[in-house]
Write a structure and sequence with these properties.
By secondary structure, the protein is α/β, with parallel strands linked by helices. The chain has 2 domains: 2-269, P-loop containing nucleotide triphosphate hydrolases (Rossmann fold, 3-Layer(aba) Sandwich), CATH 3.40.50.300; 277-534, Class I glutamine amidotransferase (GATase) domain (Rossmann fold, 3-Layer(aba) Sandwich). Helices cover 37% and strands 22% of the residues. Helix 12 packs across helix 18 (514-534) and helix 14 packs across helix 15. The protein starts with a strand and ends with a helix. The protein binds glutamine.
Length: 535
């Protein structure tokens, strides 16, 4: 079992996650069984309760774990499903150690960071490595070297290298800033951050240096001299037009060869499976504008899986997507903000803020026959809008937003009612969705059963289903028991669909979300028909 450990220096947000994912991609396309693990040194147990404004999207895995959005990147680049074990947090580690201490398992000894916490960290890492019969585990340490919170993890990883002699290689990601008109590359920050790493006993084996332009020979030489990393193991990760090009950038510099030597690995020849995909992604022949209606639109990372699902749609169709980020409250102030859109996505969400703007957006899409996709809360507001404006139930609402409403078209099902602990009653993870024949959903999926990921508490209220369907909305996907409504569409058009599940979480470059793909295709048709009318 071999390990690649990725640390970061100088600054956060320089693309460590993309580099980790890209390494996963090139190594798994070289015939190795690879998986990825993210270490998040924060104290939260998991990402479930974290505010998307602070931390970006909460990603959901098949097993229902709510994890850091980097796991989404790993899944997309690896084309492999991960589990909650692939995300270690300080919260998980300490909870386990304290629980064991309470059970007396440490036999009266003083419980300490070294060895008890570090042993628990190593145990969790090895568990992931052994579980899937892997050749290689790529471990990304969140944050930057020097952060107080990451210290126990780095210490554990240092020990891992000692214990697993010859099986561990350290990759350090740094920034090489370019300053002045001449864009002169500065290597000092890299030198300092490697020094910080060495102080805690870790000598990096490979450096991945982020910069705008490719690293100059001089920069490479200087960095090598001051860090003891051989020149050929200093990889230049210069600015790419698209993150999906990063695997190719690092592969071309001999990264696989260096890792093979460091870890004494055998691989088959690297096969780039994304050639066609990247070609279409980078050279779209036509464009559509899709509006993303949400309440965290200032932070695009809050909707990163949707952004990626649209990339996947482009890479499979050659239709470029311009995303227009629209704050749901601003829709209420000025509905005209939607008038130049070729398609509308109403996003997931919790809480009342922004909901009326989302409802207004669905109404606009329905009345003007603009292609529409609703996801999770977007599905629920489509039901509310339909009840209010088509069925004339003017006070229709979700009990999430109005406890007193006389018409709770969206409600909590009885078995979900017991709110025990935050996040405790959420319906999470991959669940079966059964698709009805002769529907748009069946046209898009071509399968009777699909498994899609969920993260919600509320459902379409079963008492209203018959009336809603009589009025022209079809529930074309349902859960196994037929109790929970999973997909809705309108009986008179093919460009209006919404899902209770998060189609974005399972979207992959070579297997895009069918719903996002459909929105993009419908948007192009709509754009053309509009252009036709105007000419
Ligand atoms: N707030 C809604 C619910 O809990 C929708 C959740 C979501 O959009 N992820 O059911």
């Amino acid at each position: 079992m071999k390990y690649i450990i990725i640390t970061g220096g100088v600054l956060s947000g320089i693309g460590k996650g993309t580099i980790a994912s890209s390494l996963c991609h090139i190594l798994s396309n070289s015939g190795l069984r690879v998986s990825a693990l993210k270490i998040d040194p924060y104290l939260n147990y998991d990402a479930g309760t974290m505010n998307p404004y602070q931390h970006g999207e909460v990603f959901v895995l098949d097993d229902g774990s709510e994890v850091d959005l980097d796991l989404g990147n790993y899944e997309r680049y690896l084309d492999r499903n991960l589990t909650g074990d692939n995300n270690i947090t300080t919260g998980k580690v300490y909870k386990e150690v304290i629980e064991r201490e309470r059970k007396g398992e440490y036999l009266g000894s003083t419980v300490q960071i070294i060895p008890h916490i570090t042993n628990e960290i190593k145990r969790r890492i090895r568990k992931v490595a052994l579980k899937d019969d892997l050749d290689l585990l790529v471990i990304e340490v969140g944050g930057t070297v020097g952060d107080i919170e990451s210290m126990p993890f780095l210490e554990a990883l240092r020990q891992l290298k000692r214990e697993e002699r010859g099986q561990v290689t350290f990759v350090h990601v740094t920034l090489v800033p370019e300053i002045g008109k001449e864009m002169e590359q500065k290597t000092k920050p890299t030198q300092h951050s490697v020094k910080a790493l060495k102080e805690i006993g870790i000598q990096p084996d490979i450096l991945m240096c982020r910069s705008i332009k490719p690293l100059t020979t001089d920069s490479r030489r200087r960095i090598s001299l001051f860090t003891d990393v051989p020149e050929d193991a200093i990889i230049s990760v210069y600015e790419a037009e698209n993150a999906y090009q990063v695997p190719e950038i690092i592969e071309k510099q001999g990264t696989i060869e260096i890792i093979k030597q460091n870890l004494n690995l055998e691989t088959s020849k690297y096969m780039d499976t994304w050639i066609e995909y990247k070609e279409k992604l980078m050279n779209p022949q036509e464009f559509v504008t899709i509006g993303i209606i949400g309440k965290y639109t200032e932070l695009h990372d809050a909707y990163i899986s949707h952004k990626e699902a649209f990339n996947h749609a482009t890479g499979n169709t050659g239709i470029g997507v311009n995303l227009k980020w629209i704050d749901s409250d601003s829709v209420r102030e000025n509905i005209q903000i939607l008038s130049d859109l070729d398609g509308i996505l109403v996003t997931p969400g919790f809480g009342y803020r922004g909901v009326e703007g989302k409802i207004a957006s669905v109404k606009y899409a329905r009345e003007n026959r603009v292609p529409f996709l609703g996801i999770c809360l977007g599905f629920q507001v489509a039901v509310i809008e339909f009840a209010r404006n088509v069925m004339g139930i003017s006070d229709a609402n979700s009990t999430e937003f109005s406890k007193e409403t006389k018409n709770p078209v969206i409600d909590i099902l009885p078995e979900q009612v017991n709110v025990s602990e935050m996040g405790g009653t959420m319906r999470l993870g991959a669940k079966e969705v059964d698709i009805l024949d002769n529907t748009l959903a069946m046209e898009l999926y071509g399968e009777k059963k699909i498994f899609e990921r969920h993260r919600h508490r509320y459902e379409v209220n079963p008492e209203y289903i018959e009336r809603i369907e009589k009025a022209g909305m079809i529930f074309s996907g349902r859960d196994e028991q037929g109790i929970r409504m999973e997909i809705l569409e309108l009986n008179d058009r093919k460009n209006f669909i919404a899902s209770q599940y998060h189609a974005e979480f399972k979207s992959r470059p070579l297997n895009p979300s069918r719903l996002h793909l459909n929105l993009v295709k419908c948007a192009l048709e709509y754009r053309k028909s509009r252009a036709g009318k105007n000419s």
